[in-house]
Amino acid sequence: CVIVSRITGFGRTWAMAFALGSTMLSSAYAVANNLPNMLYELVAGGMIVTAFLPVYLSTKKRLGDKAGNEYASNLLTLVFLLCVVLAAVCMAFPSAIIYTQSFYSDQSTMASAVFLFQFFAIQVVFYGASTILGGLLNANRDYLWPAIAPVANNVVVIATFVVYAYLAPHDPQAALYVIAVGNPLGVFMQMALQLPALRRNGIRLRPRINLRDPALAETLRLGVPILLVTVCTFAVVSVQNAASYVFVDYGPSVIAYSRLWFTLPYSFLAVPITTAMFTELADMHAEGNMAGVKRGIVSGSAQILFLMIPFALYLVVFSLPLITLYHAGAFTMDAAAVIASYLATFALALPVYALSAYYQKVFSSLRRTGVFALFSLVASLAQVALTAWGAANPHLVSINVIAWGDVLFGVVLDACLWMYLRLRLGSFGLRRLVRPTVLGLAFGGLGAAAGWGALRALEHFVAPLSGSILQALGYTAAGGLLSLAVTFGLTLAFKVPEAAFVSNALGKLARRIRRR
């Protein structure tokens, strides 16, 4: 399901590149599409993602399924009403909210972003409901529908961009309305697809408001500190978007196109680890099994580092052919060169980004969300300072300074969290993270070097990269498969324990093939 979701996610971004290219309009779409999710996270999303699962599981354990359903119904009703109010405010004052993402720019150039955002604002409501529904299903260990629901969203938006590309040459205004309506429809489908699975899991929801519910109070106690995290995230993304316009007029789309490839290995490999570990850590903490919690923190961190470091190196090596895959329709190779350079820098943040996302779940399971929020503020201030300095000195640096800010954020945050865990929990094996880091660098470096050599050989003996999608796909496949074979083939040959995830996956695949 994750694979299908990511494939359709790529199809969605490719369709966006084909229809909109890397232009002011693509940046307007990127900003308007990102804002509803950011605003939802700002007012409720971060709090729900962090606090809902531990409180829901604790309520079910202590009071039974009925109490768990009542708590979920109460929270869903309140979040729905809050999101409706927020969406209405966004529709009433779209220009003011778009300004938060473009304050370095002339606002007369933001008309398309304002227009699209007026329609996209309703997505806040759908995101709110979808997050709680997905959290309920994950809590009941039904990971299928939350994982596959984004596929429906992606398919609808892909169709939207196809229709736009057909209409735009003849009727640009009608084409813009297609995007304005199609995008919220996609998010609605993402929410609706999860509804039937609730009943199959015995989850009964109904409208309910009880402001005196102790579980709601516990959610607020755990979640309110995360509001600081989401405020920091909103501020960081706002500064990044605004600063990106300083360097190129399609700045936000540079970040958007790069992020697809950046999040691909994270979604495939790290998210399954963090999702499963979050449920287990919350369960162990609820049972008072702190020894298990310690082992889980180290085990999850080691797996993430060992897997993410090689893929960060692969993204650096294959950045240009990967971005060349967007080269169709309105997307130009001049833009591809800028985006590839940004991606190569952005990739360096992948391991620390994956760790910080995991540690947010760790600190939630430990009921220490306030500590995580405080350290996020420290890291965000460092990132904003670097990004703002870059925007003030565009003659000294390129748009890549924004990506360096992401690297700085992850390093500062993870270092602070590590130190706190060591002080709070005592010695529990953080030194064991040195080994997977070194192994990831060593085997990942060998794989990346092999892939780089394959690319150079193909360009020398076959043909230089020319902007052809098929050529870029072939070169990426050849070099990428060689990189994977070298990295993980060596780890399996040397029986590296950290490669258990890979060997288990290959074993499952082999068993399925034999059954057929």
Describe the fold and architecture.
50% of the residues are buried. The longest helix has 40 residues. The protein has a domain of 200 residues. The protein has 516 residues and is mainly alpha-helical. The two termini are 20 Å apart. Helices cover 82% and strands 0% of the residues. It has 20 helices and no strands. The mean pLDDT is 87.
Average pLDDT for all residues: 87
Write down the secondary-structure element order.
Answer: HHHHHHHHHHHHHHHHHHHH
Helical stretch count?
20
Task: Specify the biggest β-sheet.
Answer: none
Q: In one word, what is the shape?
A: globular
How far the N terminus sits from the C terminus, by CA atoms, comes to 20 Å
Number of strands: 0
Poorly predicted ranges: none
Which structural class fits the helix and strand makeup? mainly alpha
Q: Into which percent range does the helicity of residues fall?
A: over 70%
Structural topology:
Layout: H1 2-20, H2 24-63, H3 65-92, H4 94-99, H5 111-120, H6 123-139, H7 144-167, H8 172-192, H9 195-200, H10 214-247, H11 251-286, H12 290-317, H13 319-324, H14 333-346, H15 350-365, H16 369-392, H17 400-425, H18 434-461, H19 469-493, H20 500-515
Helix pairs in contact: 1-7, 1-11, 2-3, 2-5, 2-6, 2-10, 2-11, 3-6, 5-8, 6-8, 7-8, 10-11, 10-16, 11-12, 11-14, 11-15, 12-15, 12-18, 14-17, 15-17, 16-17, 18-19
